[in-house]
User: Fold this.
Amino acid sequence: MRFVDLGLDDPTLREELDAAYARVIDRGLMILGPELEAFEAEFASYCGARHAVGVGNGFDALVLSLRAAGVAAGAEVIVPAHTFVATWLAVEAVGATVVPVEVSPDTYIMTPEAAAAAITSRTAAILPVSLYGHPVDIDGFMALASRHGLFVLEDAAQSHGSSYRGSRTGGGAHATAFSFYPTKNLGALGDGGAITTSDPELAARLMRLRNYGSSRKYVHEETGVNSRLDEMQAAFLRVFLPRLDSRNDARRGIALAYADALAGVTGLTLPHELRDARHVYHLYVVRTGRRQAVQASLTEAGVQTQVHYPIACHLQPAFAARAFRRGQFPLAEQLADEVLSLPMWPGLRQVDIASVAQAVRAMV
Ligand SMILES: *Cc1c(COP(=O)(O)O)cnc(C)c1O
Assistant:
């Protein structure tokens, strides 16, 4: 059983993708054209934000958001200790300093309370991550930020279409960064990313930064970069966006089926969804102290699994210069040792879930 499957063999989907491809080819305009403009409008509206700015990938969405907000060398940015390393690397890329805080032990995401305790006079921004598809309490972060004059950038690369207290992810933060890496809940057929914001000045600055710092041809107001969502990917994303809600519903159904099938297995912790949250299960992550054995049993049964992520960010060689210690973020370290991602994609069948559960029960 595959860990993930993009479902590209669906004939109706294929027809629409072929039509999108043909439309772009017939027009012959490949960069900064009508497909991008249309996708930006559609995605902003979906997220409940006034603007969306398409960029080259999720990492650039984070970096350019920090740059657009003026976060630079000398500034501190509060990040979760447990996340994909891209979150931390984006802060490093603008010369700022990551200040890690432990995540909540039940949802694996950062809480406003934990962030509040890490604020110093140098804090410029808070960067919560809606990890695995569980949305963060963005209203809580915004309230905290307004008390301290901070910028809130949400990393929603794993959380397209999730919501918290009825508010869709992408509408609540000062800026929200998305990745359209092909396996994400909303994925392109190559690299892609976007930032949503309701701040028109921030949006205008992001539009400049992604295009060599230019808003008028050959006039460069600042030292921007080249990071644009191309027409072909924008056209494909316009095919996938209308399917996002039903695909997320399917993921939620699979999560429920897993919860049923794996209920009561001792030593196995299942994902937890807060009452106010609509989790979109980018990944279905369980925890066990016997990960190696469980993973081996699943491999034996032909079930592919992955570990997100096996090394805590503060112990990555890339951050050696910061001299973090082992034991400094014990929960992040424990999660790195215990998390295991089971197969999760919208087309997974009940029989697949049953055979995963059987292999897990055979072992734990
Ligand atoms: C995927 C991901 C990113 C980076 O996105 P890319 O498009 O691969 O650059 C950033 N943060 C998180 C949490 C991610 O999962």
